[in-house]
TrEMBL record:
HTH gntR-type domain ranges (all copies): 2-70
A GO MF label: DNA-binding transcription factor activity
PROSITE patterns assigned: HTH_GNTR
SUPFAM superfamilies, A to Z: Periplasmic binding protein-like I, Winged helix' DNA-binding domain
Keywords: DNA-binding, Transcription, Transcription regulation
Protein name (record): GntR family transcriptional regulator
Length: 360
């Protein structure tokens, strides 16, 4: 639990970093801050003293407290060998492999990492960015949050850019920013996966995609492109879209209703393996079989996908390689070396969750 002075310090610092207070702005008086935070004068002075030492604030005798040029001071003093990593998740799915790959390279080059988790929420992303700036990290590796939506944190990203903090995006990127990135050719891969289902005789395929992440939008576009290659059956396709904040029970209820129809789809293309595994359970719960009645494909080659019954047809995700490549690229960026963005071309992995359909 934070001490009172730390709450005051972090509150003022957050306002400075997010430009609630700009460089050279006059801060509220000690009395005004005491009233705002409901603390003593001693607490305010201790918080301001630490902010002065960190070059966020300066005093003018008899004139008050002002915002210092913290970005200029940061560029002069930062050399703490600390790298910040911000991802949407940390402990589950593909993320441990990515983070482990990053850490192997970063630690081998004498750096330590600070990890923060946004849960794919913009407010938590904002808190993570402020935390990283607060810790004066030398560089950042970031997985964008809800990357298909307008981002309210562009002010902080502009601060990062102005401060010339080497920053690398993974899995997705914000088109408004020219930071390098590492990702997967999601649209092409999903198109191939859907073409595989169509080649197997599945004319009625349901696509289920998370569309607040740009990866999901690209995968959905690949699904659509596959059907555009077959205009004679494109009207048979269906799509269910959802966002990470949606109540998944309602999404599953909607999908269950689709599969109780007489003209139900014979295959599902899923946003990722995690969703595919859940939908395989759903299919079985309504009395249908995978793959005899419904073929299912995922995306990412999650480590459990090969062990479930039936094993899941999917598309590989670089995971550990992405982490290693991200670590190497960031070290080059820190050393002012030339780098280029990377886009992996993943391969399909055909397993037992799909089966050819006889349409005769």
């Amino acid at each position: 639990m934070e001490n009172k002075y730390e709450i005051v310090k972090h509150g003022i610092k957050e306002s400075i970093i997010s430009e609630g207070y700009k460089v050279s702005d006059k801060l509220p008086t000690e009395s005004e801050l005491m009233e705002q935070y409901h603390v003593s004068r001693y607490t305010i002075r201790r918080a301001i003293g630490e902010l002065q030492n960190e070059h966020y604030v300066y005093r003018i005798q008899g004139g008050g407290m002002f915002v210092d040029d913290w970005q200029k001071e940061r560029a002069t003093h930062v050399n703490n060998k600390m790298i910040g990593i911000i991802t949407t998740h940390i402990a589950d799915y593909i993320f441990p492999n990515i983070i482990s790959g990053i850490d192997r390279i970063i630690s081998a080059n004498g750096y330590s990492i600070i990890i923060s988790n946004t849960h794919n929420n913009h407010q938590k992303e904002r808190q993570s960015l402020i935390r990283m700036l607060d810790n004066n990290v030398e560089a950042l590796i970031i997985e964008p949050t809800q990357s298909a939506l307008n981002n309210p944190n562009m002010d902080l990203y502009q601060k990062i850019k102005e401060a010339k903090i080497p920053t690398l995006f993974i899995n997705a990127y914000y088109p408004e920013l020219d930071f390098p990135h590492i990702g997967t050719a999601d649209s092409d891969a999903e198109e191939k996966l859907t073409e595989y289902l169509l080649d197997q005789g599945h004319e009625k395929v349901l696509g289920v995609f998370q569309v607040d992440d740009i990866q999901g939008v690209h995968r959905m576009n690949g699904f659509v492109h596959a059907y555009l290659n077959h205009p004679e059956i494109s009207y048979l396709s269906e799509i269910v879209m959802y966002q990470s904040s949606d109540e998944m029970a309602k999404i599953f209820e909607k999908i269950a209703k689709i599969f109780t129809r007489e003209d139900r789809p014979t295959a599902i293309a899923c946003y990722n393996d995690q969703l595919a595994i859940q939908l395989m359970d759903l299919i079985r719960s309504i009395g249908l079989r995978v793959p005899e009645d419904v073929s299912v494909v995922g995306f990412d080659d999650y480590q459990l996908s090969k062990y479930i019954d039936p094993s899941l047809t999917t598309v590989e995700h670089a995971k550990g390689k992405m982490g290693i490549d991200a670590g190497k690229m960031l070290i080059k960026m820190i050393n002012h070396e030339e780098i280029e963005s990377i886009e992996y071309q993943p391969e399909m992995i055909i397993r037992k969750s799909t089966k050819a359909r006889d349409n005769k």
